[in-house]
């Protein structure tokens, strides 16, 4: 293999078009300045053109334009720029110029936290979103592992209240052994939330060593009562403590000391350093918690509007952290004194945020990724059982705007609850304990009103963010509900006799249509499905349309320059085919550049095509990075001209 001056890796969450558009764009940019480059692609079929160690050693710089995890440790000692895949498509010339000529581009250091942004990018502000993505992904790694424990434990605790508020207390006349068992199992499970969240944040930063130190630090956070906020602080503390130790112990050669470092030095020193820091910072956090509880007790007999505002802001500020817990524990303490009024507002303020996320994804589904929509729908269930933590992924994605939005809805729910003197005699359970509430339907109404207000605000914010960063819709590779990440399959060896998969081979004159009338994206997809059946390419238009729509839910197929490449795979499709449609007027479609769509290149894919459609798609995506091709496609005003252009 020959040596390359530059090497690169590209990948997107869906692993189809964007991956190969970034590849082609970087190759063109390098060609313009006379530099050789090899690009490794992380697509849906796996890793294509994997970089060899010899190629890595011979390169002077590395560009990673990817929204999925790419192993960067193999590039240790090389100048490295890491950006989202969208930037690789939009700014390939700038990236190549920077990696070649910008002396401030840092050299990547092995085993450090995944470095998304160079120092020059941070100063210029071009890629603040990539730095935030690092923080966000590590937090979501913790949340995805924590959330099932919260759901399981919270629901079991809530169900235990069916037998009475004090049914788990052996000293109470309401005591029921089965309720006690449910409450104990549920409480124990929920108590795992803090150490697990802490551990898996640390694991995302510094792998297995971070996981070990994170569990220990998380237990200290739990035992000192710092809650969710302590878990987050502890997670980053543990993760970066390991990074620091890896740096300090680097002089010890791995060959002789790798086992000693992993089994002894990292865990012992890591737990000591991280644990001590966590211990000492937990004291002021605990004092703050106690002070807030005292303040809230003093507020009980003041204005219900002011009290509701304070409770709403506190409950939605850190979702289970010390501020939230101060309100919750105050309500619990007052319950023991027979005051059921205070807890009603606290519960309302805690239930509203997760419900708000469900309303938000209903109001503006196109602004959220498929994983976010799924999480929002599940949050209807979580919120209904008083599990506030389901709102965490949404708050963490855009905290400066989303957290205040949650606060508004929580405050409204709490204020209305206090004004109408609603009483809730249980510290947990959500809507499961409605039979115990003095005005159950009115209480639910106030919570829903608060959640609706927050939901509208969240949907508006998400819509603006989606327009601003259209291609980042599926940036997050961690599913917060399942914890699954986009995985890369082993590369499949290619042979010289491999088929070229030229898109022109599956396009005919009958599959091209001009001046099609459509008012929306869905109108276009419906037309394509009917067009396929009309041309004998498929037998069921409804099934093909459903597959088109399902693919759009996973991530928009809108590209740029007014072009979209929707595709559908279904058993009713006979063989691979390409459709080209030009619209009479443009329609709105989520795109790279925010412009509407007037040209559609669509693929019909049989159920079992051995991955052929991915090759057709990737080759078409590469064509769309060539300005001359786009200009000729836009200028073509006859079916014959379009067919000739694509076939050549």
From TrEMBL:
It is found in: Cell inner membrane. The keyword Transmembrane helix applies. Residues 505-648 form the PTS EIIA type-2 domain. PROSITE patterns: PTS_EIIA_TYPE_2, PTS_EIIB_TYPE_2, PTS_EIIC_TYPE_2. The chain crosses the membrane at residues 146-165, 177-200, 212-243, 263-281, 302-320, 340-363, 400-420, 440-461. One of its GO terms (molecular function) is carbohydrate:proton symporter activity. GO terms for biological process: phosphoenolpyruvate-dependent sugar phosphotransferase system. GO terms for cellular component: plasma membrane. Residues 6-101 form the PTS EIIB type-2 domain. It comes from the Bacteria. The keyword Transferase applies. It is a multi-pass membrane protein. Keywords: Cell membrane, Membrane, Phosphoprotein, Phosphotransferase system, Sugar transport, Transferase, Transmembrane, Transmembrane helix, Transport. Residues 135-471 form the PTS EIIC type-2 domain. PANTHER family: FRUCTOSE-LIKE PERMEASE, PTS SYSTEM 2-O-ALPHA-MANNOSYL-D-GLYCERATE-SPECIFIC EIIABC COMPONENT. This is Phosphotransferase system fructose-specific component IIB. It comes from Pediococcus cellicola.
């Amino acid at each position: 293999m020959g040596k390359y001056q530059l090497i690169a890796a590209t990948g997107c969450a869906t692993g189809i078009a964007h991956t190969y558009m970034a590849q082609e764009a970087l190759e063109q940019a390098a060609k313009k300045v006379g530099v050789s480059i090899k690009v490794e692609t992380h697509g849906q079929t796996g890793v294509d053109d994997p970089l060899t160690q010899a190629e890595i050693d011979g390169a002077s710089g590395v560009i990673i334009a990817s929204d999925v995890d790419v192993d960067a440790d193999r590039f240790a000692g090389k100048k490295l720029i890491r950006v989202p895949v969208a930037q690789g498509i939009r700014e390939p010339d700038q990236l190549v110029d920077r990696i070649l000529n910008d002396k401030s581009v840092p050299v990547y250091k092995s085993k450090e936290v995944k470095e998304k942004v160079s120092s020059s990018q941070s100063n210029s502000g071009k890629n603040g979103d990539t730095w935030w993505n690092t923080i966000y992904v590590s937090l979501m790694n913790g949340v995805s592992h924590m959330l099932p424990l919260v759901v399981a434990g919270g629901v079991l605790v809530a169900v235990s209240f069916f037998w009475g508020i004090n049914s788990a207390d052996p000293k109470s006349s309401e005591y029921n052994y089965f309720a006690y068992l449910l409450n104990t199992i549920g409480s124990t499970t929920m108590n795992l939330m803090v150490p697990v969240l802490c551990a898996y944040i640390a694991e995302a930063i510094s792998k297995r060593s971070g996981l070990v130190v994170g569990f220990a630090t998380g237990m200290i956070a739990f035992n000192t009562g710092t809650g969710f906020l302590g878990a987050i602080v502890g997670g980053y503390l543990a993760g970066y403590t390991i990074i620091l130790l890896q740096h300090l112990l680097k002089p010890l050669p791995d060959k002789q000391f790798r086992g000693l470092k992993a089994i002894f030095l990292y865990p012992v020193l890591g737990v000591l350093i991280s644990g001590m820091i966590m211990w000492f910072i937990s004291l002021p956090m605990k004092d703050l918690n106690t002070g807030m509880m005292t303040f809230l007790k003093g507020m009980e007999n003041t204005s219900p509007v002011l009290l509701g505002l304070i409770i709403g802001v506190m409950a939605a500020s850190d979702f289970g952290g010390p501020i939230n817990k101060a309100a919750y524990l105050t309500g619990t303490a007052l319950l023991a004194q027979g005051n059921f009024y205070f807890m009603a507002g606290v519960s309302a303020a805690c239930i509203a945020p997760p419900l708000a996320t469900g309303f938000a994804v209903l109001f503006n589904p196109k602004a959220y990724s498929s994983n976010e929509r799924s999480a929002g729908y599940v949050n209807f269930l979580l919120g209904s059982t008083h599990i506030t933590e389901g709102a965490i992924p949404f708050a963490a994605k855009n905290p400066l705007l989303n957290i205040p939005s949650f606060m508004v809805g929580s405050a409204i729910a709490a204020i209305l609850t206090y004004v109408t003197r609603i009483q809730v005699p249980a510290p947990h359970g959500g809507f499961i304990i409605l039979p115990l509430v003095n005005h159950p339907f009115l209480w639910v109404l106030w919570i829903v009103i608060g959640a609706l207000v927050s939901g509208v605000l969240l949907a508006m914010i998400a819509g603006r963010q989606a327009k601003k960063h259209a291609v980042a819709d599926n940036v997050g590779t961690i599913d917060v509900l399942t914890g699954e990440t986009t995985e890369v399959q082993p590369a499949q060896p290619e042979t010289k006799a491999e088929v070229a998969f030229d898109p022109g081979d599956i396009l005919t004159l009958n599959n091209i249509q001009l001046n099609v009338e459509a008012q929306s994206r869905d109108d276009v997809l419906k037309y394509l499905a009917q067009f396929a059946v009309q041309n004998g390419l498929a037998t069921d238009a409804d099934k093909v349309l459903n597959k088109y729509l399902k693919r759009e839910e996973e991530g928009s197929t809108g590209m740029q320059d007014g072009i979209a490449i929707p595709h559908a795979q279904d058993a009713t499709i006979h063989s691979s085919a390409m459709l080209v449609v030009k619209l009479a007027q443009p329609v709105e479609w989520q795109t790279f550049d925010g412009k509407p769509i007037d040209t559609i290149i669509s693929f019909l894919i049989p159920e079992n095509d051995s991955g052929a459609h991915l090759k057709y798609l990737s080759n078409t995506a590469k064509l769309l990075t060539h300005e001359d091709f786009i200009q000729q496609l836009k200028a073509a005003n006859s079916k014959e001209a379009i067919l000739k252009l694509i076939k050549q």
